[in-house]
Write a structure and sequence with these properties.
mainly alpha; 2 domains; two-stranded antiparallel ribbon; about 70% helix; about 10% strand; elongated
Length: about 110
């Protein structure tokens, strides 16, 4: 959305209208876009490499997946223990408080 020209007040408190022109903004935007595409064009035109990685790429990806899965099991175990403590911790506190009241009443 385009906005109206900005008003700038200088040291002498005089109003100066600084027109932010739509055409200037579009020229800047288009120039930036052309410069970006000109720099990226060789990379886009390169195409795909036809090299085969073979078994080493498969082993590397498999090893990464093995590390990820082996870290998943302890995380799930800790999460379930955390949830168990959250939902049963309040019951334990209530039981301890009741036991304290009973001991104080005797």
């Amino acid at each position: 959305m385009w906005h109206n020209p900005c008003t700038v007040i200088d040291k002498d408190n005089k109003d100066h209208n600084r027109a932010i022109n739509r055409e200037d903004a579009m020229r800047t935007l288009i120039g930036t876009l052309i410069a970006t595409l000109a720099c990226a064009m060789p990379a886009l035109a390169a195409g795909q490499l036809k090299e085969e990685g073979g078994i080493m790429i498969v082993l590397f990806l498999g090893f990464g997946a093995l590390i990820l899965v082996s870290q998943l099991f302890p995380g799930v175990a800790l999460f379930t223990v955390m949830l168990k403590e959250i939902f049963t911790g309040s019951r334990k506190k209530a039981a301890v408080a009741d036991a304290d009241e009973t001991a104080n009443n005797l």
